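A quick word before the example. In earlier lectures we treated sequence and structure as two separate objects. From today on, think of them as two lines of the same record. Here is 4-nitrophenylphosphatase written that way.
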Amino acid sequence: MSSVPQYLTGDKQGIKAFLDKFDVFLFDCDGVLWSGDHVFPGTVETLSLLRSRHKQIVFVTNNSTKSRADYKKKLDSLGIPASVEEIFGSSYSAAVYISRILQPPPHKRKVFVLGESGIEAELDSEGIPHLGGSDPAYRRDITPADYQAIAARDASMVDPEVGTVLVGLDHHVNYLKLALAYHYITGPNQATFLATNTDSTLPSAGALFPGAGSISAPLIMMLGGPGREPLSLGKPSQAMMDAIEGKFRFDRKRACMVGDRMNTDITFGIEGGLGGTLAVLTGVASRRDVVEGEVRPMAFVDRLSDLLAGEVE
Ligand SMILES: O=C(O)[C@H](O)[C@H](O)COP(=O)(O)O
Ligand SMILES: [Mg+2]
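And the structure line, produced from the sequence above:
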């Protein structure tokens, strides 16, 4: 059983000592920097404190609805200084995995997407053709003709060149898309079943909503349940950690993962062999999860801006 994490809120010297241990901070976004479009008070000041101390900052989000360029716009709109180079999302992680590791053969190079434009933009950035996703042709009710065409594997409905099904948070999921995804995975296409992430919930507006995991769950059930889960390329996937380390070239022992979720963010940092992990209580995890859970961070604070107390010399 892991030890009880250090509680740093209000502990000026403890915060200073904690911050001094690290040169790199990997920041989760939803539940840490903001909740939906509400940026938590003190977030901007805390990040600029770290930058003033020459700490490297990387934004590592599982939220696949936006691309890195979209996140740059969101960070700008919330007054959070950042470069697009500092952003690493699960949709980019999945696109890189497909183009550089999975490398489907030319006749199976297309990806059927259950997700939003963030996935499509990152697949485009890696030159990967895709269908489904935000295409309005799929945002409709299934019809009797659809059943016939899908069952008959009519190429107008079931594209023979689909070799991968990629699932992320999809605010427009529906029966037709789930049916097509199932047939791509189980039919002659034998498509590879991937997910950008499998978070069960999404923290937004101070509450919890269906997460990306709830979008792939019906497919897992249709495929026979446990053992048929998709390969997930978001946190805590170490494929994502390796890609981030490869890009930013940092000493893992001098890096700290900051997150609000134990089974993604904190597990990501621990399994990645990072020097530290810090939890905040403004998102998914409760204090009890942090202090008594199976997975525990090195330290925690009530909110990110509590780190500002570390400014005192
Ligand atoms: O369902 C989801 O996709 C997640 O809740 C969301 O993406 C979490 O984003 P993160 O906290 O990693 O920024
Ligand atoms: Mg989060």
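Notice the following. The longest strand covers residues 56-61. We will return to this example when we discuss secondary structure assignment.
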